[in-house]
Amino acid sequence: MSLENPLVRFALYLLYPFSILWDGVYRLRRFLYAYDFIKSNRFQVPIISVGNLTFGGTGKTPFTIWLSEYLNEQDKRVMILTRGYKGKLEHGSGILRSGKRLGFNPFEYGDEALLLVRRLKNAVVVVGKKRRENLEFYFNKELPDVVILDDGHQHLKLKRRLNIVLFDALMPHDRYKVAPVGYMREGFSALKDADLIIIGRASQAEPESVKALRKILSHYAPVNTHMAEMDYKPTGFFDSSYQKFLENEEIQGKKVICLAGIASPESFFNLVESLGADVIDCLSFPDHYFFEVEEVKEILDRAEAENTYVITTEKDIVKIRRIIDDPRLLYLEIQVDFISGKEKALEIIAQGIEN
Known about the structure:
Layout: H1 6-34, E1 47-52, H2 60-73, E2 78-82, E3 94-97, H3 106-109, H4 111-119, E4 123-127, H5 131-142, E5 146-150, E6 162-168, E7 196-200, H6 207-220, E8 226-238, E9 244-246, E10 255-260, H7 265-274, E11 278-284, H8 293-306, E12 309-313, H9 314-320, E13 329-340, H10 342-352
Parallel strand pairs: 1-5, 1-6, 2-4, 2-5, 6-7, 7-8, 10-11, 10-12, 12-13
Antiparallel strand pairs: 3-4, 8-9, 8-13
Helix pairs in contact: 4-9
């Protein structure tokens, strides 16, 4: 959608009053919680919110994995409260425990919950949109040392010790407007509650663009709010049994079809290509998409005919492996890689979990 198009500009002009109304509702809501006109619950455990102001695609899941692994290294038992988006338990509740034999169904728990619990060593993942009620129900059973509120910046029913807000350096700055005009859930004024800001995919963006984004965020965030920059480091290509199949350098020159059902597929496609793969096609599906057997089989049949691998994301493989298994289907595992600001970010996190 080009803003140079007169029809697009006219449509945005018509939508602008709705954007103001949307922003006003969120500002009022945050005000009512801040001054206890609407009560929020405080628990006897540190709660860390990992969230954003936009509609997905900022890397919350890999960052939550990194944060949980760091907390595990500090001998902290972690509970992650996640919505379980598009899973059947989204409107109920369910619990996953790391270290258990995984036979859980992504259609029940959602893709992100299964990815989280598989990657972590000492954590429980509680699924369901009623996160305050779920924490109340499971807290005494699990006794976590730290609770991570996944996608939590707009979930104000729980008081938190630390608010971490993520941004995507690759998102065009003209999209930073409140819906329906732009791609923001709520306006920059919500940064007044931020304790730490993480800018993701920073090394993939132009330095001047990152600098401009930092300037925008500094204008709205509390004075001296720390900003760290990160990207994602690939750790290898794995098969559907989660066994490493290829090292990063072994994909060079091999023909691949990229397959992704995530919010920002272009970044994934570019990452695979940057490792030297011969990308012959990129297939994009909606975020949290549940693939059908026939459509995956059609892609794999094409891969066999053209002697290619199909490379997907770790979030997608937890769903695809439930419906089909094929040696040509691989996923690229990634982990957070800080570019700047890591030590100060760790200091802020450590202060946030002090009892």
